Amino acid sequence: MRNTHTIVELVVIGAKRFDIFVGMVVLRFVFNLLLLTIIIISSSATRSTKPIVKTTSAACQVRVFGKTVQKVPLRYRDDDSPYALAVAAFSDEPLVDSSCGSVGSAVDADPSPASPPTTMNFLATQVWPSARTAARALERYMNPSWRICEFGCGPGLPSLVAASLGADKVYATDVDATGLELVKLAAKQQGLENIEARTFDLTDNHDHELPQADLYLFSDVFESAKVAIGAAAICYRLLGQQHQPRKDDASCPAPLLVLPHVWVFAQADRAQREFFLKEMQRLLKDPSLSWSTASNLEEEKAWALNSRLWLCDLDEMNVFYG
Ligand SMILES: C[S@@+](CC[C@H](N)C(=O)[O-])C[C@H]1O[C@@H](n2cnc3c(N)ncnc32)[C@H](O)[C@@H]1O
């Protein structure tokens, strides 16, 4: 066996190895190119099949004191949360926005002054994950002929989104005056005249008149068992009501609602939501009533549009923050 090579043989071997090396580099390059092409094609396919997500811009509908609330989870310690902005604005001055005058005169004539936000009411002055999901559901399924009424709206992201989508009329309601002021201010800043901020207490006796609407919304309102049970009583009452739609726009893709629909959004870790469910089961005499188990909003469509009552079990991990 020969273990030495002539120079020519060495050159041939070297050339072969070089060929193999070059071949591998070329192959690797082609493979990467293919991979990149597949990624680009699949991402553009996903883009084109996904509905346009307007919640990103809708999130900006919560704009207070001339500042846009950012597209981040708006916990109260965030500098851009409605809470932080309201606290800052309240520090010496009354709740006034330089660009649009006194907030108190923003949309409705409710003269009740808002008190400065405290840590007691920070719940009402920030945007919760449920509100973002509710806003997205409105973007997908709302028919502009609908009148919307939101309970426990806080800073009112869903209400503001509904108004900016052209809802016939929006009632944003809460017990918290500061939350309502934030809604009024955002509405005024954005020229939304179809929204009215009103005081409404879910625990109050429910005989007084409810705003007429085609869709009633509850987003993360179960702060206590009392509120949850009060909300259930309101829901039950709403399901027994019947309204005529105001507009009849045949060009709208979603069906018109004649009987009001109720959408309730709540995360599983809101312990008080079970009080709501139990009370609804009792009132409707339907022990099988439960939170929906669909994994995404597309699957929820049937609930949103066909069922009078949509109990949306919200998965905070799947909330779109933009
Ligand atoms: C966790 S925050 C949710 C705020 C907003 N809906 C959201 O999802 O971003 C709960 C809201 O319920 C409101 N709330 C609490 N008790 C209420 C009551 N008795 N009647 C009406 N709203 C109430 C609070 O003021 C607060 O705005």
Give the assembly state of these chains.
single chain
Low-confidence stretches: 45-61, 94-112
Helix percent reads 25-40%
Number of strands: 10
Strand order of the largest sheet: 7-6-5-8-9-10
**Gap from first CA to last CA:** 70 Å
Could you tell me the mean pLDDT?
Answer: 75
Task: Classify the secondary structure makeup into a structural class.
Answer: alpha/beta
- Largest β-sheet summary: 6 strands, parallel
**CA-based gyration radius:** 27 Å
The H-level CATH homologous superfamily of the largest domain, spelled out, is Vaccinia Virus protein VP39
Ligands and ions found: S-adenosylmethionine
The rough form would be described as elongated
Total helical elements: 9
Strand content: 5-15%
CATH class of the largest domain: Alpha Beta
Which second-level CATH architecture of the largest domain applies? 3-Layer(aba) Sandwich
Q: What is the chain-wise order of helices and strands?
A: HHEEHEEHEHEHEEHEHHE
The CATH topology of the largest domain corresponds to: Rossmann fold
Number of domains: 2
